[in-house]
Amino acid sequence: MTILFIILIILASVVLGFIVLVQNPKGGGLAGNVAGFSNQFMGVKQTTDVLEKGTWIFAGIIALLCLFSVFFIPKTAKVSSGESGATNATLPSSNPIPSNAVPLNPTPVQPKPGQ
Fold this sequence. Notes:
- The protein is mainly α.
- The protein has helices spanning 2-22, 44-69; strands at residues 77-81, 85-89.
- It has a domain at 2-25 and 43-72.
- The protein has a two-stranded antiparallel ribbon.
- It is rod-shaped.
- The model has no long low-confidence stretch (mean pLDDT 74).
């Protein structure tokens, strides 16, 4: 399930990047007033509105996917050591084993010779 979230986040990020790159800069200056043309020439004004809404929508989708993916990440972590290979370990518990705990398989005490 985590892989699905990663794929969806990457896909939404690529689409968001494409939308941002397609947009024209909104700076005024000389570029906005060349020959008297404004942003409303041939419907460009509505295109920028759609692209701006798409930017906000895909940014929201990425944020929600990142937040919801936390609930699907498994709570176990893989611990690997150099010689023994990878093993599954759980996160440390909040209540440690008490020091006076009896082991499950106690070894019998051998009497010393002469007793």
